[in-house]
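Hey L., structure's done. Input below.
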Amino acid sequence: MEFKARKIAEFLDGELTGDPEVLVTNVSAIEDGKKGTLSFLSNPKYEKYLYTTRSSVVLINKSLQVSKGIKPVLIRVDDAYKAFAMLLDLYVQNLPEKSGTDKPAFISPTASLGGENYIGAFAFIGENAIIGKGAKIYPQVYIGDNARIGDNTIIYPGVKIYHDCIIGADCIIHSGTVIGSDGFGFAPQQDKSYKKIPQIGNVILEDDVEIGSNVSVDRATMGSTIIRKGSKLDNLIQIAHNVEIGKNSIVTAQAGIAGSSKLGSECMIGAQAGLVGHIQLASGVKVAAQSGVTNNVEKEGTVIMGSPATNFMDNKRSLAVFKNLPDMFQRLNKLEKELNELKKSQSPDEK
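Output:
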């Protein structure tokens, strides 16, 4: 990566203030900026770093009013965060692409490759599997029999995709993730043991889904566990059997969604939140971190928090009361003592 400030401003259609010939060779966070790097500032609360950073170029929003003199070259854009993402995307596109088939790798004679693929060392592609055009399968990936991988999808090292699972186009699955492991289904027996219920469904990831590292997405008991188009899952998440996550939804780290729960489109699930099985969330519902969701949420766009999760504002009011409980308890004790003393001081007639 090597660009002059002038070229960056032209690419972003931004307004440049400072030396247009300044050279950028890397990127950095604004608080840790170094000479020769580009940073961005989108949140005004971090404005203080604009006056201390050593970055050579900083992207800022046009709406930001600079209150002091600054050293770096400024490029003003409508949205600094989006502009920075565009630059990173440009950088990634210019990286050399992996291609060809490393050895050793096993590809079943009955598997189908769409062309322009990369197959890494020690990858395994099972019988009748279909690998789309431009898909990249990194080392030590397992793709089971009859699985399908869409065009331009990237499967990073160590991912396991069980038989019959379907991965759409333009998906990204990060290392250590397991797609299609058995759902947790066991029937209690009279002798107190448990009999395993065969899990004969599959997992479907629609197009443009990204899944972080060390995520488990269980196959359905029957039918499909489905993650709809455009949804993004963070690291360390459990998605149980027959769950359905609506399009363009976000699930963040260490969340767990129990079996047969259904999420509408554009939902957001905070870190370490847990959803019990067989519930439904309407589209646009937001679940705060560490919440426990035990009931359906039927109104679109509702924000909930707490365990058990309730309406966000109701829960905040409850928390405000909860914080005052120690003081209220002391006051109640004091009032009770005063009342008892008052009763003791009264004459028999007054009582």
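The mean pLDDT is 94. The helical segments are 5-12, 80-93, 312-323, 325-345.

-- N.
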